[in-house]
Specification:
The structure holds 3 protein chains of 3 kinds. Helix content of chain A is 27%, strand content 33%. By secondary structure, chain A is α+β, with helices and mostly antiparallel strands. In chain A, strands 1, 2, 3, 4, 5 and 6 form a 6-stranded mixed β-sheet that branches. Chain A has a 4-stranded antiparallel β-sheet with strand order 10-9-11-12. Chain B is of the alpha+beta class. In chain B, a hairpin with a 4-residue loop joins strand 8 and strand 9. The longest helix of chain B has 39 residues, at 208-246. The radius of gyration of chain B is 19 Å and the shape is globular. By secondary structure, chain C is α+β, with helices and mostly antiparallel strands. Chain C has 3 domains: 5-57, Beta Barrel (OB fold (Dihydrolipoamide Acetyltransferase, E2P)), CATH 2.40.50.100; 69-145, Nucleic acid-binding proteins (OB fold (Dihydrolipoamide Acetyltransferase, E2P)); 152-237, Ribosomal Protein S8, Chain: A, domain 1, CATH 3.30.1370. In chain C, the strands form 4 sheets. Chain C has a 5-stranded mixed barrel. In chain C, strands 1-3-6-5 form a 4-stranded antiparallel β-sheet, with no helix packed on it. In chain C, strands 2-7-8-4 form a 4-stranded mixed β-sheet, with no helix packed on it. In chain C, helix 3 (170-179) packs parallel to helix 5 (220-237) and helix 4 (198-213) packs antiparallel against helix 5. Chain C is flat and about 65 Å long. Chain A binds chain B through residues 1, 73-74, 99, 101-102, 104-105, 107-108, 112, 116-118, 219, 221, 229-244, 247-248, 251-252, 255, and chain B through 1-2, 73-74, 95-96, 98-99, 101-103, 105-106, 109-110, 184, 186, 191, 195-208, 211-212, 215-216, 219.
Chain lengths: 274, 248, 260
């Protein structure tokens, strides 16, 4: 149940009829991503940032780093949080105000993928165990919504994390003083998990759905793989349902597509695998 | 993560912390039609989870722009009571419950013949009174019973169960310790009649094969839950029939 | 016997998603079809008449049908109509011209003098259209459609109204006669019960709720009669009533306000 406006019946029919012939409305194959463009370090005030264009979908991700207390149950880990803002300039269906369920779901899917693969080496971000750790904020601004915000956000978050540089800190154990040095070091990142999202439309599974496709889809599934071949998040979204075979197809295809995306991401940030 | 020293989730005899075998469900009890005000209701005890679900509607929805001219709108609110967990939970919706409410709605929606009630809303309220891992699958199970109890037409019941990975092994239906110190949790909901998967999430770190093994195991668990749901729905009426027969 | 298979017994209790029949059958209420199979969509009792397969629901909302006589409650008074709650998913409307034979000048008349907020009325469903607008009429209804004075309103599951009325009104007439009450059963499951004696009125309501609760069981009429007679004997012992009402079997008058 997306909040998208009513779609013209002819568009709906066109998408469905083309899919029956094995084609998509924009000419892509069922397993093709749209054109991807990634720029990093676009916001100087942020410790890390990335601008991602996926077809006509555009998102901007900023990484801010602060110092704070660890979670009581994880005293020897830095803290990471992900937040998404679906700002009204990006779509006629986005409203100003606190994050709605779509923004929250999006943030949590991307966050889970990064967190569960332990992509960011949070254990290296401890200053005083149980007391003082680095806090990493992943903040996502969606700028133009043309479908598949999950994968665009996942790419943007990893691009920003991989290129983030955080100031070195010097902690004086006796005075408890914390000095921020003028030297910078890369944020420690060990894995590159990337979400791959499918829409089910008229019983067909297509990767990287555009907004038009999302408006007619029955259901959605996202599978996040890292480069070790591990899955770190899965999410079936919206209504509709999947057969077990469709889930298996999504998992296997996601493994393949995420490694293609990863290669492209790493070359655009000019880095090898961590 | 923060796992107590030496805690083994599966012992040398293959038993889990609560004495269960790898593929064993916790004890599950269900009761239907227990609230007076709601149009339909159900109570599910699943291990230490205590979950209440209620359905109101179909009823007219205001403001009007929330209406759908061709079908009923399904609203789901999953909520945890402040006293449901070890450390008091702040009342009201947090980000976790907002997401869970959304995926539960997606899990229930395919079962409902919403097109029969255009311009109305069907409200599903799930209250977690005590939580011990697996509250979303127990909540879906209870909500599905409450919807049937409200007489909302359904293509099938929605049954749910989770599987996960603890100490390197894929097991059924994690409890709180297993969820906290295990490697992954995979909640699944299905419409068993046609094996349609209506909810699938994974929180953890699994290989492709482990993930698919967990999904298949969770589906098996959900099918066992389904049988209990069918019995619980009939039980309400069979009890009355028995009572009546006993009086004669 | 038709070709095809039946997987359930008559009046069997089923739940949503139960396979009922396969083959050349028609699917009625409480079912859905997929290919040549028919499944139940509700908790209810199976009914197969000829080739028509239905499930009579044991729970569920009232779905209006044109011609139904319903009880309703006035919830708003507008310029030329009343808004009426009839327990359906949608509110109903009663227009002035459908409420009275007289010509009313709406500019000069306060409609609340005819029906005020909170009044209970007895109306017929005149129209129920595709945009889910329900129009009522009270013209030609008993008591001019109300407002009903005194008595009490109870609600039962709409699908159980036929059981409360009974074959040819047998159940409801028995309850009326034994409790000396006036009862109107709306097709929407709203029931108005009014008696001079408060205890008897309460007894009638108990009997109606008993039928609602036990509607899926056998031998209900006899059981309700037993129940009423036992309670009446108690009331006589306590001096609430002086004599037990006579029951003349088989001879039942009309006075059935609902329909079966």
């Amino acid at each position: 149940m997306s909040d998208a406006p009513v779609m013209a019946g002819i568009m709906r029919d066109r998408i469905l009829n083309l899919l029956k012939k094995g084609k998509r409305i924009d000419g892509r194959g069922f397993e093709d991503y749209r054109d991807v463009e990634i720029k990093t370090n676009v916001i100087e005030k942020a410790e890390g940032s990335a601008w991602v264009r996926l077809g006509e979908t555009r998102v901007l991700v900023g990484i801010k780093v602060d110092v704070g207390e660890p979670f009581p149950d994880l005293p020897d880990r830095g803290v990471m949080t992900t937040n998404v803002e679906l700002v009204p300039l990006a779509s006629p269906t986005f409203e100003p105000g606190p994050p709605d369920e779509n923004a929250i779901e999006l943030a949590r899917i991307v966050d889970r993928g990064i967190r569960e693969s332990q992509a960011v080496e949070l254990e290296k971000l401890v200053i005083v165990p149980g007391k003082l750790v680095r806090v990493i904020f992943i903040d996502v601004h969606v700028l133009d919504h043309d479908g598949n915000l999950i994968d665009a956000t996942g790419l943007g978050a990893m691009a920003a994390l991989l290129t983030a540089r955080i100031p070195k800190l010097e902690y004086n154990g006796e005075t408890g003083e914390l000095v921020r040095l003028d030297e910078y070091e890369p944020l420690p990142v060990r894995h590159v998990p990337l979400p791959v999202t499918f829409a089910k439309i008229g019983g067909n599974m297509v990767v990287d759905p555009s907004l038009d496709e999302e408006r007619v889809m029955e259901s959605r599934i996202t599978v996040t793989f890292d480069e070790t071949g591990h899955v770190s998040a899965v999410q079936k979204g919206e209504g509709g349902s999947f057969k077990l075979e469709e889930v298996m197809y999504a998992v296997d295809t996601a493994m393949r597509k995420s490694s293609e995306l990863r290669e492209m991401l790493l070359s655009s940030v000019d880095r090898g695998l961590p | 993560m923060g796992r107590p020293e030496g805690l083994k989730l599966i012992d040398e005899n293959g038993k889990r912390v609560d004495g269960r075998k790898k593929y064993e469900l916790r004890k599950i009890d269900m009761e239907v039609g227990i609230l007076k005000n709601a149009d339909g209701s159900a109570y599910v005890e699943w291990g230490k989870n205590k979950i209440l679900a209620a359905v109101y509607g179909p009823r007219e929805i205001h403001p009007k722009h929330l209406q759908r001219p061709d079908m009923a709108v399904l609203r789901v609110r999953y909520n945890m009571a402040p006293f449901s967990v070890e450390e008091r939970k702040k009342p009201g919706p947090d980000r976790r419950s907002v997401e869970i409410s959304k995926v539960i709605r997606g899990a229930l929606e395919p079962a409902l013949l919403l097109e029969m009630f255009p311009r109305t809303v069907i409200d599903v309220f799930i209250e977690v009174l005590q939580a011990d891992a697996g509250t979303r699958v127990a909540g879906i199970t209870a909500a599905s019973l409450a919807l049937a109890d409200a007489g909302i037409p359904m293509r099938d019941l929605v049954a749910a169960c989770a599987a996960g990975k603890i100490d390197g092994e894929i097991v059924l239906d994690l409890n709180k310790d297993e969820d906290n110190y295990g490697e992954a949790d995979v909640p699944v909901a299905i419409m068993p009649l046609k094996n349609d998967i209506t909810l699938l999430q994974m929180d953890g770190y699994l290989t492709r094969d482990e993930l698919l093994e967990a999904v298949k195991l969770a589906i098996k668990g959900a099918k066992a839950v389904y049988q209990k749901q069918r019995e619980a729905l009939k039980e309400k009426y069979l009890q009355i029939a028995q009572e009546v027969a006993g009086n004669e | 016997m038709k070709k095809g298979s039946i997987f359930v017994k008559p009046r069997e209790l089923v739940v949503p998603g139960t396979l009922l029949v396969q083959g050349p059958f028609k699917n009625g209420r409480g079912t859905f079809r997929e290919g040549n199979r028919i499944y139940s969509t509700v908790v209810g009792l199976v009914e197969i008449r000829g080739d028509l397969v239905r499930v009579i629901p044991l729970e569920g909302p009232y779905m209006p049908e044109v011609g139904d006589n319903v009880l309703g409650k006035i919830v708003d008074v507008r310029f030329s109509n009343w808004v009426v709650d009839i327990g359906a998913p949608y509110e109903a409307s009663l227009r002035v011209q459908d409420a009275t034979e007289e010509r009313i000048d709406i500019m000069k008349t306060d409609l609340r003098r005819i029906f005020d907020i909170g009044d209970v009325i007895y109306a017929k469903i005149k129209a129920y259209n595709e945009v889910n607008q329900i129009d009522l009429t009270t013209r030609g209804m008993p008591f001019k459609g109300g407002p009903l004075r005194g008595g009490q309103l109870v609600t039962i599951t709409p699908s159980k109204v036929p059981r409360v009325i009974g074959k040819g009104g047998s159940m409801i007439n028995m309850i009326k006669k034994l409790t000396n009450t006036r009862i109107i059963v709306g097709q929407n499951g709203w029931v108005w019960v009014s008696g001079r004696n408060g205890e008897l009125e309460r007894l009638a309501i108990e009997a109606i709720l008993k039928v609602d609760r036990e509607s899926h069981t056998q031998g209900l009429t006899d059981r309700v009669k037993e129940f009423l007679l036992e309670k009446l004997r108690e009331l006589k012992e306590r001096g609430v009533i002086t004599e037990l009402p006579k029951i003349d079997e088989g001879k039942e008058g009309g006075g059935n306000d609902g329909k079966t």
